[in-house]
Amino acid sequence: MSLPVGESTSERAWEGNPIRFPMGGAGGLPRAARVVRVIPESERVKTLILDLRLPAQPGQFVMVWLPDYEEKPFSLAEADPVGLTVARVGPFSTALHRLEPGDPVWIRGPLGHGFTLEGRRILLVGGGYGVAPLAFLAREALARGMEVTALTAARTATDVLYAERFRALGARVVVATEDGSAGERGRAPEVARRLLEREAYDALYGCGPEGMLEALRTLAAERGLPAQLSYEAYMRCGIGLCGSCEREGRVLCLEGPVLRFAPDGGPPEEGTGFA
Ligand SMILES: Cc1cc2nc3c(=O)[nH]c(=O)nc-3n(C[C@H](O)[C@H](O)[C@H](O)COP(=O)(O)OP(=O)(O)OC[C@H]3O[C@@H](n4cnc5c(N)ncnc54)[C@H](O)[C@@H]3O)c2cc1C
Ligand code: FES
């Protein structure tokens, strides 16, 4: 079984232009939205809920703009209404953390290529705020009757994100912490490896830090599983024009951020990015 997630993604092939854009053309112009709710997730992470609905797939992202700052990409934690889960690490994310209900923010998107559902029993592995698009994916997968195990990994218990949200959706939740203060002790790939040794899955999905994704890519190839992994890259235009996000010959803002790797490993599959 291989199903595109969501029903609303369309592509427009512009005559004479080899680039095909996801729904919304080039993401359109930034549109103004307002924060309607702020959900504290941990000491360093908040989710902003906006008064905006987007036709989007899990794994797609939006460019977020605030006056006096450059635009930055954020995964959609939800699309209806839009939710953004933001870790405070630098100037832009700190500015987002200062927003309160009623404050404006500008959104361009949805952009990029999201996850595709495949198989019946799937394992989702999220490191830090990487859980955000995976919760959106879990909702879609569960709605289609799939069995979902969500592994949410963090350094320590107070950094664990989304465990209750995954449970509320109906997913089985496995928590992993590096210091063993909650759930299983170990980094995400180690705990995922232990799960895969005990249980059978049809596909592996991941979002999180680069090192975690590379370890998951290796793990999936060893276990003969297809893997869909969401990568971060420095993004400026978000629409395939500036080249800043290229990786392994792929323009990640268009062909990713989700790349699919076949069960035998190797480079990301040709055609990834255009479901
Ligand atoms: C496709 C895509 C999706 C993304 N989705 C999200 C999302 O859902 N939530 C989210 O919070 N961010 C997300 N990001 C990252 C986001 O776009 C910004 O890069 C991030 O918010 C940092 O911007 P900043 O200006 O606050 O800090 P910067 O000035 O860019 O960084 C400040 C310092 O923090 C370091 N740093 C940057 N990122 C991290 C990190 N993740 N952990 C630890 N240190 C870091 C930098 O190396 C630098 O030293 C995504 C990026 C991409 C490409
Ligand atoms: S961000 Fe400009 S080409 Fe991808």
TrEMBL record:
Residues annotated as signal peptide: none
Keyword Nucleotide-binding annotated: no
Key words, A-Z: 2Fe-2S, Iron, Iron-sulfur, Metal-binding
Molecular function GO terms recorded: 2 iron, 2 sulfur cluster binding; flavin adenine dinucleotide binding; metal ion binding; oxidoreductase activity
Pfam families per UniProt: DHODB_Fe-S_bind, NAD_binding_1
PANTHER family the UniProt entry points to: DIHYDROOROTATE DEHYDROGENASE B (NAD(+)), ELECTRON TRANSFER SUBUNIT (PTHR43513), DIHYDROOROTATE DEHYDROGENASE B (NAD(+)), ELECTRON TRANSFER SUBUNIT-RELATED (PTHR43513:SF3)
Protein name from the UniProt record: Dihydroorotate dehydrogenase electron transfer subunit
The species this protein was found in: Thermoflexus hugenholtzii JAD2
